[in-house]
Amino acid sequence: xxxxxxxxxxxxxxxxxxxxxxxxxxxxxxxxxxxxxxxxxxxxxxxxxxxxxxxxxxxxxxxxxxxxxxxxxxxxxxxxxxxxxxxxxxxxxxxxxxxxxxxxxxxxxxxxxxxxxxxxxxxxxxxxxxxxxxxxxxxxxxxxxxxxxxxxxxxxxxxxxxxxxxxxxxxxxxxxxxxxxxxxxxxxxxxxxxxxxxxxxxxxxxxxxxxxxxxxxxxxxxxxxxxxxxxxxxxxxxxxxxxxxxxxxxxxxxxxxxxxxxxxxxxxxxxxxxxxxxxxxxxxxxxxxxxxxxxxxxxxxxxxxxxxxxxxxxxxxxxxxxxxxxxxxxxxxxxxxxxxxx
Length: 342
Prior knowledge:
By secondary structure, the chain is of the alpha+beta class. The protein has 9 helices and 5 strands, in the order αααααααααβββββ. It has helices at residues 16-27, 44-66, 71-97, 103-118, 127-142, 146-151, 155-212, 218-244, 258-277; strands spanning 285-292, 299-304, 307-317, 320-323, 338-340. A 5-stranded antiparallel β-sheet has the order 4-3-2-1-5, with helices on both faces. Strand 1 (285-292) and strand 2 form a beta hairpin. The longest helix has 58 residues, at 155-212. The N and C termini lie far apart (58 Å).
């Protein structure tokens, strides 16, 4: 009888969360192996390999949980609350000043309040989106004549808001650095160990199936192969998206001019946050320079630096980058229009 072997899956091709998810599914199947000496196919080596995999997976899980909380996260949250309060205070002060009896001051207040309305209720937004909009608001306020701002007594609250934003950015940068240290260190090491333990187990099961026959291991092998098929489909879809993505024209090479500078700055911050939330190594996500769609449909083509051929698209939702799937790839007939912005 032909032995049914566990398929090979290159775990290093998976993103961290995909690798962890696959291992979690595999852990759920190990009790189907013959782990008692009274069962056909049992060996002490198999039981030891299962326990080693469980321990390595547990450390991988612990490392991912540890990355979610770092000391600087509390400081960043406090700085975010302070800039929210400063933004609210200035907005309310400006709104009240619109009723000031001196026409020039009331007119300045109305102009400034229109800017606050333009960018919406910043205090309710996710931190990344709030940072982008507040940056634009501060730029617009800076463009108003300083004499008019001083006459309306807006200079002090404006400078306070600007300082609160600077304080938040410093705290957010420290938070990212601490989270990045966790990502690069503990998660990478624990993932490598868990991957090795998973491969040791599957290799042992395949070897035992040759020696003892496939039947004792079939309840484990078949569902694990089904999980592997699904992960291979994910990787294949990613390669297909890369193949179907339009190649930028040499003549259309973009430049980081004023038109896109602010968008690129926001994108850089969102990519950093995406890496952290996806448990990816900081700096591994690279932007190709190709964007698609407008406003709510805006999407960006990226790749992982260790997988440059696997291009994929991220779209913005609630101020954060999210993985997205397109029925028709951007740049293809019927798909979103693309443009080179970098």
